[in-house]
Amino acid sequence: MARDSSSKKRVDAKIVIVGSSGAGKTALMERFVYSKFTQVRVQTIGATYVSKEVFRGKESIHLSIWDTAGTERYRSMMKQYYRNAKGAIICYDITDKHSWDALRSWATEIRGNEPDCRLFICGTKKDIVDEGYAPPGVHSDCVKFYAEGLQAPSIVSSSKTGENVDALFSMVADELWEEVHQKPLKKDVVSLDKPVRRNCCYSA
């Protein structure tokens, strides 16, 4: 059934996805927006922009999602993408301790540039551990302890299977909705998602 656009309200929110190179940022974004997974991909240069609209009742939340490069050579230009970000998803590969160690510097950098930006921690590549191809590189208790200190929700996902990807972005949307309205969201509200459009900026 068609939605009555005249009665709909809209909330705009810029979201950045950051983390080390190879941490699964692009795969996470593509799984959420396009429901697809690509095994082999080229490295992101600068940042790639996509958008998706999610609904909370008659109100829409327009997520402008920026998938950023994780290599050191582009680190100096990342600050421009943090500007006015309402939320940041910091990714780490759960099989790679180095990507977890780097997560702390990403969190510090974002908080230093956008103090009011909401942080969300996302462990990626859960399928690799579940299928026995590699052991976890960081203990879950360590992640939980750090996330609580940062006051950042954390989740472990798989872009390959789609596990917890929609749950992550739903959590982001819910928190941003609550921040705008300064009241808890009714959790029985059904969320309906649809992709909007894709515009690339500095993408390979």
TrEMBL record:
Q: Which Gene3D superfamilies match?
A: P-loop containing nucleotide triphosphate hydrolases (3.40.50.300)
**What CDD domains does this protein map onto?**
Rab
Top-level division of the source organism's lineage: Eukaryota
> InterPro entries recorded for this chain?
P-loop_NTPase (IPR027417), Small_GTP-bd (IPR005225), Small_GTPase (IPR001806)
Query: Membrane spanning segments where?
Result: none
- Keywords, alphabetical: Nucleotide-binding
Which Pfam families does the protein's record reference? Ras (PF00071)
- PANTHER family given in the database record: PTHR47978
Q: Which family does it belong to?
A: Belongs to the small GTPase superfamily. Rab family.
Please report the name of this protein according to its UniProt entry.
RAB24, member RAS oncogene family
Q: What is the lineage of its organism?
A: Eukaryota, Metazoa, Ecdysozoa, Arthropoda, Hexapoda
